[in-house]
Design a protein that fits this description.
Layout: H1 2-14, H2 18-21, H3 26-30, E1 45-52, E2 62-70, E3 80-85, H4 94-103, H5 106-111, E4 112-117, H6 128-144, H7 150-167, H8 173-186, E5 192-197, H9 199-210, E6 215-221, H10 231-249, H11 254-268, E7 273-274, E8 280-281, H12 283-294, H13 308-319, H14 323-342, H15 345-356, H16 363-366, H17 370-375, H18 380-386, H19 403-409, E9 415-419, H20 427-436, E10 441-447, H21 461-472, E11 481-485, H22 498-502
Parallel strand pairs: 3-4, 3-5, 5-6, 6-9, 9-10, 10-11
Antiparallel strand pairs: 1-2, 2-4, 7-8
């Protein structure tokens, strides 16, 4: 049961839009339009489509997938369909539709029918209801504190294992890509345009690999790497990325990094770290500190280096005083608990991720943490505990295309966006995708408040301009470029401003 707790926390940290999704329940998210009974959409609203449970058996059992359709506001300017995916895996799309539409340029909403397809296991689409019921049972069990008992294993976990074996092969990325193409065909279009964030970049690349003649344009924003063939490879590499971000967030101060490595080493051995002012921090609290160092910047607030979290963490590392960090930890615990209680993403994530694996590992390999610590002596254990995702996996897999397959089969011009300090999908993952898709363009995001994830139409004007122009003319080749995020005007003249910090050279690891 401890693994489920880790997974729930994981999705709150690493999902691109989980904070927005967690603010409302699934039913509230779906209530802005009732489901239409029309077979094909003629107006804005939620629609459903029956598709094969197993696309390899098109005449077999059917399941329902749901999508929100927003009609292009100008028939004369209409270009075609634009599909969205917001990552996870496990994030729904319908719940994000109205927020996204509000943020899109008018030129996009005029020219494209917008399609927000809930992947299997999310929203109202296939298997989502059963997963929600299971998630509720787990929460009830946690409330009663019986989750580690034989009763839990007998009454909940074992039936869930059987349920997973039945649905997992039909919930992976391949199945969702096939659903997308079935919907394209249903709507009578020859090609689609696509914008995917985070895990949505995997979905987009797999769709383009499976249906290369059906892609008009594809934006892969905050790209996943196609070169890692299992979850372990991704998470080991992510530990290295997190240490790079922590280095930046601690202002490249060598002594702070050394102190942090020492604290992590102490709690790694199940001891508590004792501060000079009498506070005792166990591994859970220190791992929360590690999370604070890599959590996304708040675009609506002053920069990280003027935040209370930065002040509290550096006070702990510089003077060994723990009171301020302790106070912030207590405040944040309640927020995270509320988000975890409303999220089902932690249950969808392992189903999709483990189903997708190209090269599965044995339990012994998954349980070996050595390579995590080799990747980062600060974040190795943190990522190891979060990402034992496919341990004891028993269901059939549906492996996605390899990097070689993607390289061989995609020749269209793809736009890839990567953040230099993206905490959820490492910048080198965007580079991996760029190298794999030879015809692609890479846009790098750097500068003020750039510890971000998901950049298109979220406030970075340079990225918005490039993405919009590309969607209108995907055949026009764009040069690789860097978009620099700028601070608000009131911070431009700060005595020790962000420009000084980002020009520091990163420290080499001691």
């Amino acid at each position: 049961m401890a693994r489920f707790k880790h997974l729930l926390g994981l999705l709150i940290i690493f999902s691109p839009f989980s904070s927005l999704a967690a603010a409302t329940t699934a039913d509230e998210q779906l209530s802005f339009e009732s489901t239409s009974n029309e077979e094909k959409p003629s107006r804005n609203g939620i629609y459903s489509l029956k598709v094969p449970k197993n696309h390899k058996n098109p005449d077999g059992e059917k399941v329902d997938i749901y999508y929100f359709f927003h009609k292009a506001t100008s028939e004369s300017d209409r270009i075609g369909l634009l599909f969205f995916n917001f990552g996870g895996p496990g994030a729904d799309a319908i719940g994000e539709a109205k927020y996204t539409i509000q943020d899109l340029p008018v030129s996009i909403t005029k020219s494209f029918d917008l399609i927000f397809l809930d992947p299997r296991g999310t929203g109202k689409s296939a298997f989502a209801d059963k997963i929600r019921k299971y998630a509720n049972e787990v929460r009830k069990c946690k409330e009663k504190q019986t989750c580690d008992t034989d009763a839990f294993i007998k009454d909940i976990a074992l039936p869930y294992d059987a349920f997973i074996k039945d649905i997992a092969p039909y919930m992976g990325t391949n199945a969702v890509a096939d659903d997308m193409d079935a919907l394209r065909e249903h709507l009578g279009e020859d090609k689609i345009s696509y914008l995917g964030y985070s895990y949505g970049t995997r979905l987009g690349s797999i769709y383009a690999e499976r249906y290369p003649d059906r892609i008009r344009a594809a934006v892969l924003d905050s790209a996943m790497s196609p070169i890692f063939e299992n979850e372990r490879g991704l998470s080991i590499d992510l530990a290295k990325n997190h240490e790079k971000i922590a280095e930046y967030r601690l202002n490249y101060r060598f002594e702070r990094l050394e102190k942090l490595r020492n604290i992590v080493s102490i709690v790694r051995n199940e001891s508590n770290y004792q501060t000079n002012d009498g506070y005792s921090f166990d591994k859970e609290k220190i791992y929360t500190l590690l999370y604070f160092l890599v959590e996304k910047d708040n675009e609506d607030s002053i920069d990280w280096f003027k935040s209370k979290k930065y002040a509290a963490i550096t006070k702990l590392l510089d003077t060994d005083e723990g009171k301020d960090f302790h106070d912030i930890y207590i405040q944040e615990q309640k927020k995270q608990q509320e988000q975890q209680e409303q999220s089902t993403m932690g249950f969808v994530y392992p189903i999709v991720s483990c189903t997708d694996e190209i090269t599965p590992l044995t339990n012994e390999e998954i349980s070996n943490e050595d390579k995590y610590w080799q990747s980062s002596m600060i974040y190795g254990g943190f990522l190891f505990e979060l990402f034992q995702t496919c341990l004891n996996w028993k269901a059939e897999r549906s492996p996605i295309a390899s990097a070689d397959d993607i390289n061989r089969n995609i020749s269209s011009n793809i736009l890839i966006i990567g953040g230099r300090y993206d905490p959820n999908t490492a910048y080198n993952w965007a580079e991996d995708m760029h190298k794999t898709i030879k015809s692609s363009t890479l846009i790098t995001v750097d500068g003020y408040n750039s510890v971000q994830h998901g950049f298109s139409f979220s406030g970075t004007k340079c990225v918005d301009k490039i993405t919009t122009e590309y969607l209108f003319n995907p055949s026009k080749k764009i040069s690789d470029t860097t978009c620099k995020r700028s601070p608000p005007n009131n911070l431009m003249s700060s005595p020790k401003n962000w420009r000084e910090r980002i020009e520091y050279e990163p420290l080499s690891k001691p």
